[in-house]
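Subject: Protein record for review, amino acid sequence with backbone structure tokens
Why sent: The fold of this protein is of interest and is recorded here as tokens.
Notation: Tokens come from a learned vocabulary of local backbone shapes, not from coordinates.
Attached in line: The record itself begins immediately under this heading.
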Amino acid sequence: MALAYISIGSNLGNRLAYLQQGIDACSKRIGSVYAISAVIETPAVGFDGNPFLNACFSLETTLDAPKLMQELLAVETHHGRTRSKAVGYQNRTLDLDLLFYEDLIMSNASLTLPHPSMEKRRFVLQPLAEIAPNKVHPILKKTTTSLLTECSDNTELSTTTLTLLHPSYANLKQHDFICIEGIIGSGKTTLAKTLAAKLSYKTLQERFADNPFLPKFYRKPKRFAFPLELSFLADRFKQINEEAEQLDLFQSGVVSDYHMSKSLVFAQNTLSEDEYPLFKQLFELMSRSANQPSLCIYLRQKPIRAKANIKKRGRSYEQQIEIEYLEKLATGYDQHVPFLRTQMTVVEVDVSDLDFVLHPDDLDELLRRVNAQLDVNA
């Protein structure tokens, strides 16, 4: 595997969309994308043209440098770029330049590495120094940070508020309502917040703290089971429909840390044989008019690991939860997944070997597992 650094730019059409499509295409055709810089805007340099959006990204690939360059050119062509033999610079839908391929030094008719004159271009060095500040130019023997500091290019650059999504999030962006499910302590809320931040979506979190029956239920489960489940059902229904109205108004997306039908999973474990049929009738009546997600990410967590997570986060009213209760919930969720599949796309991810709260690499692995299933379902 080799690590490569690539500059990407566009000054025609929907410039940000071309940058995103270019990165996504490189991810599919060339290798695993890692870091992506902020997006900068700069006037056309060397010719009279539209202003450019530029960025840099790194990826790991099994391709050698000449084959990698061929693939970059193919991605450009696919997205409307026509390289002309005319002298001088031109407008372009997509521009992909290979800056570094490890520390390889080469020069022939088709490829020169490192990219010639990159040290003279601030619009290349600024985003490159952001993602690889200590990368050393194998010929000049200086870091990208040093090259940026010493660069004599005075072209005016502006850092935009535009962002490029890591390709791991591209499949998720196709869904404007995503829910995360799993037993207590599986990491639903953490993942929901993380995805919402990355996708610029809103977060819809279950309102545990506002439920007056929850502490009572953990002390006296038989007495307070029915009012607890009914109150949660009513609040989930209200919250989801309120958010649906806001989605229509603001054209945004939502990541929820629950699906409304979790009420059935919990009710099966907490209600009596007489109470559950009545509760299910109420659920079916309410769910018919509730806004539904198009994607559910089901986090499969071992009950013993979930118990440890519950203890770690320290909610006082949860500390009385027994491992047996979590095991029943896990079984209930497993039996509930087929129902969820009739309502939406469901991906199941075993997170028992991951800790995406403490380790960012584990989040990347979780997303790889999610995307592997989404690609199969596409």
